[in-house]
Structures are given as structure tokens and as C-alpha cells.
Design brief:
The complex is a heterodimer. Chain A has 10 helices and 9 strands. Chain A is an alpha/beta fold. Chain A is globular, with a radius of gyration of 19 Å. In chain B, helix 5 runs antiparallel to helix 6. Chain B is globular.
């Protein structure tokens, strides 16, 4: 394993796990992992009781977060096993991803599988002063963002810190939410782009942007779940793998991820998309999940 | 087709035009007043490309509809901060829906292949239709027809 000077700030979920598993398959290990554990329920925002002993509170918070953030991906595997297996097989064949990566995105492996230096932090979110202090103490270097909300400017401005993010769209052209589906419907291809984060959405310096032919998953009327299920399946499997593959390709470019050659974007370039309305989403999903007549 | 506001389908009926006709200010000379901007946009020739300033305003309105889900009466020069707590009249949702359905057609036919821009505006039209009280069906059918054209490209 080659250890690279990269800190992965893990916000549990399929995306963080896809990054770690694909790096692992490529023989790459990050220098350290910091797992952000929220001091409240990620969905309901209900706080984890403060009266609990510190260690127990952290373990409970991590468990709640695990159950919440993997809820959809694990439920889909349990309730739609054929659909998920079919998607994993097609994506795996097309993108050269082994089966164990698809198992790994369900978050069952301990994080120590991917790195020896793993620590947990109980925080309120990216605005938590303890997180800022911790990242400040790390000094200069690259940090991989894996989700969990908006990163505040003062964190991005920490001296020497370069925050890497992989956006599921072709930058600078496709910015914003639902990048995978907007790329598909507006450019007829899927894409992901690795860049250094800046305060505005998807506007940082671009390191690598890649487009891919879309894998399609034909479904008969009997096999086809409702659109929301298909949408969740995409964001549990296809989206994280697509991003992870671009991250893997990016990390091959130089030894230090804080030292990539990157191209600035101009503010007016591209389109910033918002979440897709269900009617538009239906049209996009029809392209990825066409009707099979068998 | 309505002669004064060619982007508004006649089927929506005259009552939808009343707040536009009542809008005495002219965009952009009296600032970013939502109804004045809508009147300006809906009255301009169907095949005219939006200027950069108009495009900025359209994108700002997209954000108000898609994310904020609130249209105020009067905004600052960047369309970011409202000048007061006054909401735009209810008809503004139907008018913005009609406008974005129309503008999406322009980008579809602009010869530059900007399908993404057309789809973004159409997406906003659908979101505006969700917030419309009347004419939901008519506007929804128009938007769906345009989407069918776009997604076949």
C-alpha cells in the first residue's frame, strides 16, 4: 500500500466508503481518517443526550449516524436485491470496479481497513470550532471532503489547507445539485470533476473533469420500482462509484494531493442547476432505466 | 396569442394579465420589481435573446422559485435582498411559469445547442406550477409538452 499525504474527513455514507474502497483497490491509503460524528441525529436534528458519559455518547452518536446515513442504501439492497445486483454488475463491468467495492459502500467494514490512523470527533457540523481547531493543527496539506453539508469559508481559508471535492458533473459546465442527472439529460453523458473547494458552489480550481458513457439498466414494467426508489438507488451506487473513479484517476497524477495543477473557473462559466423537479427527473430516469419489453 | 404579452398563452384568461397591466414601473429603470420584470419579459418579442442583464435576472428568479420558494415584490440590484416583506401578487407564479416555459423554447432553438439552459428554465417552470393556484393543469400540460420535445433531443 502506498500511503499518500491526504486526510479523509469521513462523513459516513456511500460516498465516503466508495472513495476509501476504490483507493484501497488501487493500492492507495490516506495518511489519516477523521470521522465526523454528529452530536445530533442527522435527520431529525435531535441532540444526543449530553448527560451520557463521553465515550458512550460518541458510540451512540456514531451508531445513530450509521443507521441514518446508510438507511437507504441498506434498505434498497434488502428490498430490491435484483435491481441493486443488476446495477452493481453493470457498473462494475463498465467501470472496472470489483464486487467488494459495492459491498464496501454499505459501510460494514471498519474504517481501520483503509487506514491505520483513524480518529473520531463528536461535532455539531462543519461550523464546530473543535473541527476547525483540529484541521488547523494538522497544518498544510490536502483534505478530502466526503459530504455532510456546506463547508464554511473560514475553514476553507485555513492556511495551507486544500480541500478536495469530487462533483458529479462536468465542470465548469454543470454545477449545482443533482449533477449526475443534469449531466445525463443536458449532455447525454455522465461526468465527475475533482477540484479544490472554494466558498461558492462548485466554483473552485478544476484538477480533473471526466465524462463517461452512461450505463443503462433496462427494467420491465414488473421490475420497475417508483422513481424515488430509482433515484435513491443511483445516489447509493452509481453516483459514489463515478466520483470515486475520478478521485482514483486524480490521485495518480501527483504524489501530494495538495500540489495538483488546477485550472481556475470564471464565475460566468457553466450553468448552476438546482434539484430536479419530479417531472424532469422522470425524463432523466427514463434514459438510465429504459423500459425493457421482455 | 395575446398581442400585448405574446409569451402568455391566451388560454390563461385575462385575469392573469391584470397585475401586469397595473404594474406602472418599468424594468430596470425603477429597480428590480418582480411584476415590472415579468411585464418586461412577457412583452418582448418571442425570438429575441435575453440580454446579459435579463439572463442574470432570470437566473436569480430561478433561485427564488426553486430554492427559496418565495417571490417578493421588490429586490435590490443583485436580486438578493428584498426591500420589504411584501410578497409579489399570487398571479406572479403563473406568470413566471409561462415565462420560463417560453424562455426554455428560446434556448432550445438558439442554434447553440444549449439544452441544459432550456431544461434548467423548464425545471423552474415546473416548480412555479407547483405553487400556482389556478391554471395548474394548462401550464402543466404546456411544460410537459416542452419537456417531451427536449428530452427527445
Amino acid at each position: 500500500m502506498k500511503v499518500i499525504p491526504l486526510t479523509v474527513l469521513v462523513y459516513e455514507g456511500p460516498m465516503a466508503r466508495a472513495y476509501l474502497a476504490v483507493m484501497y483497490e488501487a493500492g492507495i491509503q490516506p495518511q489519516r481518517i477523521i470521522q465526523m460524528v454528529l452530536d445530533h441525529h442527522p435527520g431529525t436534528k435531535k441532540p444526543i443526550p449530553r448527560w451520557l458519559p463521553k465515550g458512550l455518547r460518541l458510540r451512540l452518536a456514531a451508531k445513530i449516524q450509521d443507521m441514518s446515513l446508510y438507511y437507504w442504501s441498506r434498505s434498497l439492497v434488502a428490498q430490491w436485491p435484483d435491481l441493486m445486483a443488476k446495477m452493481a454488475e453493470s457498473i462494475g463491468d463498465h467501470m472496472d470496479v470489483p464486487d467488494r467495492v459495492f459491498d464496501a459502500v454499505l459501510g460494514k467494514e471498519p474504517l481501520t481497513t483503509y487506514c491505520k490512523d483513524v480518529s473520531q470527533m463528536l461535532v455539531s457540523g462543519y461550523n464546530d470550532p473543535m473541527l476547525k481547531k483540529k484541521l488547523h493543527e494538522l497544518g498544510s496539506g490536502a483534505l478530502l471532503y466526503t459530504g455532510g453539508g456546506i463547508v464554511p469559508k473560514d475553514l476553507l481559508d485555513l492556511p495551507g489547507l486544500k480541500v478536495l471535492h469530487v462533483h458529479p458533473g462536468f465542470l465548469p459546465d454543470v454545477k449545482g445539485s443533482d449533477g449526475l442527472l443534469w449531466s445525463l439529460i443536458s449532455r447525454s453523458r455522465l461526468a465527475a470533476s475533482c477540484f479544490y473547494m472554494e466558498p461558492n458552489i462548485d466554483t473552485g480550481q478544476i484538477i480533473l473533469a471526466r465524462e463517461f458513457d452512461a450505463v443503462t439498466f433496462p427494467l420491465s414494467a414488473v421490475e420497475r420500482p417508483e422513481d424515488m426508489t430509482l433515484y435513491r438507488a443511483l445516489f447509493s451506487l452509481y453516483d459514489p462509484i463515478l466520483r470515486a473513479k475520478v478521485l482514483q484517476e486524480t490521485l495518480k497524477l501527483v504524489d501530494d494531493p495538495a500540489e495538483f495543477e488546477a485550472t481556475p473557473q470564471t464565475v460566468t462559466e457553466g450553468i448552476t442547476f438546482h434539484f430536479m423537479h419530479p417531472s424532469v427527473r422522470k425524463a432523466a430516469l427514463k434514459k438510465l432505466f429504459p423500459m425493457s419489453h421482455r | 396569442m395575446n398581442k400585448l404579452f405574446p409569451c402568455i398563452p391566451e388560454i390563461l384568461g385575462p385575469e392573469i394579465l391584470e397585475p401586469l397591466k397595473a404594474s406602472t414601473s418599468r424594468w430596470p429603470f425603477d429597480g428590480n420589481r418582480t411584476m415590472a420584470f415579468l411585464a418586461h419579459q412577457l412583452a418582448r418579442p418571442i425570438d429575441a435573446p435575453p440580454s446579459n442583464e435579463e439572463k442574470r435576472a432570470l437566473d436569480a428568479l430561478c433561485r427564488k422559485i426553486d430554492i427559496v420558494k418565495k417571490l417578493m415584490k421588490h429586490y435590490d440590484e443583485d436580486w438578493k435582498t428584498p426591500y420589504s416583506d411584501d410578497l409579489a401578487p399570487d398571479q406572479a407564479w403563473a406568470l413566471t411559469a409561462a415565462l420560463f416555459i417560453h424562455v426554455s423554447q428560446f434556448y432550445l432553438n438558439d442554434g447553440e445547442g444549449r439544452t441544459g439552459q432550456a431544461l434548467k428554465y423548464l425545471n423552474t417552470a415546473f416548480n412555479a406550477i407547483n405553487l400556482v393556484d389556478e391554471h395548474k393543469q394548462v401550464l402543466g400540460d404546456l411544460a410537459q409538452k416542452r419537456l417531451d420535445e427536449l428530452s427527445l433531443l
